From TrEMBL:
InterPro entries: YceD (IPR003772). This is DUF177 domain-containing protein. It comes from [Bacteroides] pectinophilus ATCC 43243. It comes from the Bacteria. Pfam families: YceD (PF02620).
Amino acid sequence: MLINLSELLSNEGDSRTYEVTLDMNEFKCSAGVYPIVEAKPFTLEASNAGKRKVSIHADVHIALAVPCDRCLEDVRTDIDFTIDRVIIADVSDSEGIEVEDQSFMDGHDLDIDKLVYPEIIFNLPAKTLCRPDCQGLCPRCGANLNHGECGCDRSSLDPRMSVIQDIFNNRKEV
Ligand SMILES: [Zn+2]
Ligand SMILES: [Zn+2]
């Protein structure tokens, strides 16, 4: 969703609130693509702080489906964050002013998805487990061991060896 800030920018001291929604329904990052399972509209407060500056504030809540690090099943991951920053509406006009990354601004349009994206990355948990004692996948057959025992003999199998074992088995089949 794009918010046009032109009107707000024409009145110094003016402030407005916008009900905004995300356009994206999945979150793409280097680690993968996570479906967005919940993203309620949220309120963006914006006020004209003079000299083409706009201070913005929003409390955002979204939920992503992130695969468990061990068994790869989707885990609902709730992410809450607050955006509180001053943006400069027209970077081309802001000579001499230190401008941080503002790729979410296109002229006077504020792109909500681009504004929120880095915040999601920053707030993603480093580790995702479906439950603390997740049993993971069987290194031999790939079965999800949370759903029960698959019957494989894993007694002598070092998990680090499973890759080598796979290569060996593939060679035998050829
Ligand atoms: Zn798991
Ligand atoms: Zn197995």
